[in-house]
Amino acid sequence: MPEVSSHVRSLKQSVYASLAEKMKALPEPPIGLHLGDTYAVPPAAARWEGLDLSSPGNYRYSHPSGLPVLLEELATKLVRENGLAATADWVQVTCGATHALHSAVHTLLQPDDGILILSPYWPLFGGMVRCLGAVEHEVTFEDLEMRPGVKALYFANPNNPDGRVYTREELERLASFACEHDLWVISDECYEHYLYDGNRHISIASLPGMSERTVSVYSFSKSYAMAGHRVGYLCAHPQVMLWLRRLTNHSIYNLSPSLQKAALAVLREGDAFVKEWSPQYASARNRMAEVVHAPKPQGGAYFFPRFENAERAWDFVERALQAGVAVAPGAAFGDAYANYVRICFTCVDEPTLEKACVILGRLGHNQGG
Amino acid sequence: MPEVSSHVRSLKQSVYASLAEKMKALPEPPIGLHLGDTYAVPPAAARWEGLDLSSPGNYRYSHPSGLPVLLEELATKLVRENGLAATADWVQVTCGATHALHSAVHTLLQPDDGILILSPYWPLFGGMVRCLGAVEHEVTFEDLEMRPGVKALYFANPNNPDGRVYTREELERLASFACEHDLWVISDECYEHYLYDGNRHISIASLPGMSERTVSVYSFSKSYAMAGHRVGYLCAHPQVMLWLRRLTNHSIYNLSPSLQKAALAVLREGDAFVKEWSPQYASARNRMAEVVHAPKPQGGAYFFPRFENAERAWDFVERALQAGVAVAPGAAFGDAYANYVRICFTCVDEPTLEKACVILGRLGHNQGG
After folding, report:
1. Residue B222 belongs to domain spanning
2. Residue B98 sits in the same domain as residue B70
3. ipTM
4. Domain check: are A137 and A251 in the same one?
5. Nearest-angstrom CA–CA distance, A35 and A100
6. Can you tell me the distance from the alpha carbon of A319 to that of A307, in angstroms, rounded to the nearest whole number?
7. φ/ψ (deg, to 5) at A188
8. Residue A184 and residue B2: Cβ atoms within 8 Å?
9. pLDDT of A14-73, one tens digit each?
10. Which residues of chain B does A11 touch, with a Cβ-Cβ cutoff of 8 Å?
């Protein structure tokens, strides 16, 4: 047998896959707080029973960029909610935000190019960089500094896993750094609607001079509880979008028009769903804050408690699993985070979360922290 | 603005995009025989109105490899129809065959690796190779020879655009070449059910010693007229599949479970749909053979007539368009094919095809051929 690409061999098994094996050995499935999802059922508009999908066009190829009517509607949303000067020419529909980020990385970087990743960060992103043969450099916002060969900066706002929501001043610092070093910015805004305590979401591309060097990534998965539909989208200047479009076309051809119609229907309904669910996520966060002694997240869907060392964190993952709650080991979120654990508070309903919180409280997880 | 990857800049505008601009200038839309699609409506099992999609699981993340029940069913099909010793461990569901091929290229090759592409060939494949920084070498089956740095061989069987169906002897020659030079083989079998005149489809991975070095690519788009659902799949030895899975996971996370359920329902119905449509495609092919003076394709969905030179072929594309029929310029299908034109006979219904054939007959397209 020949050898596969050495770049692909750098892809690690996902943290969920390694947990899945341990979970199989348990007498009954644990409460899964290791995942990043929401237990909400999507708005009626996104559900199959409510959609008119009688057109034969749903079964045929469609526009590689996305349905024109959806691109228009997304541009309107990007102007209104994100403060971007977007038109349909600025938008590309993707197979979830995962595919959007994959397209962005493969369009902006080439082998041996470096990228600064603000850590802690979403695990799959590092793999996307490595499987291209590009080089990831993990840095924190506080210790931001240039490295040789770096062409781009990636960050999530709100961040997964620590829920950080960047202030305008912080974004200005990032913007100024990107301009100074002529960097691309990949801005992952999947959690834009998961905000607490009055924190506001600001898109870095809306800052002066940033729209030309930023590729912004969005998703319907979190905002509208429809991860199963896999609808994400990219926003970028048309000169960059030209290449993002070609790359996206060469990786999936187009996204199913039926899924895009679900997204369109949801967008047209406005923000009622987001407004309905925000307080429920906030309430789940507040409940979990009583048992997890970590900073309350400003946004997103996770607590990210710190432990004295990596052994204590691993020990907590194991003990939680034995007690019936799955949480994600921090090592997945960056080299410097093996002494952390990520716990999702949006992925199970209120009674199940209550059970999980009782178990977590009993574990006294932060005794070493 | 920083620069995008030089690899991505090698992606050409698709032949369809350049035609689309010319088409916009026409007083009315032409009959589109430039595309590769079928006018058939998919079997009832694949249509939204017949599927039970009431489970909330349809709106959530699902298995990155594909629904386990679908993987099992696909393995059964691969054993029965393709003669492969496949189990669910050998299969990965993808976002159409485009995504399957993208995953295969990115898993097997790395920058500067070469790949032999049996030409003429499907245009997007070359772009997938270039955007990784790998090197495409176009060769014909008859002039097959090794080039420096080559790690893989790609071919489609039946072929798009020329409809070639490889015989067992021809596949044995390819297999022996691949073994001699220790090459990966990417076998694109999207048109496996489009066969005429008693031609049989044989999967190269079913030949002795080939299952370990072959990644086979399949699609529901052509066989079941459901291109809009974007369901494709990969078959490979589990040691290779391990990496194909990670790459696929890092590019789209997972395919929508709703779309996978449509594919599952279709598979469970058996081959009635394929048997119903085969004679209709054969009949369309026979009608077009009366006006297009090119070899009758053995399989696939296209005629690929040759002209005296590139100018004559372009002239034909232009004149056909003015007369109301869009066809695809041959230059898209390989460096040596600018004097060809591709014409699809499965993408419009019988009365429309009849109109198109009258127009093509009147053009006398092959006068220079």
Report:
1. 53-268
2. yes
3. 0.96
4. yes
5. 20
6. 14
7. -95, 110
8. yes
9. 666 778 888 888 999 999 999 899 999 999 999 999 899 999 999 999 999 999 999 999
10. 243, 246-247, 250
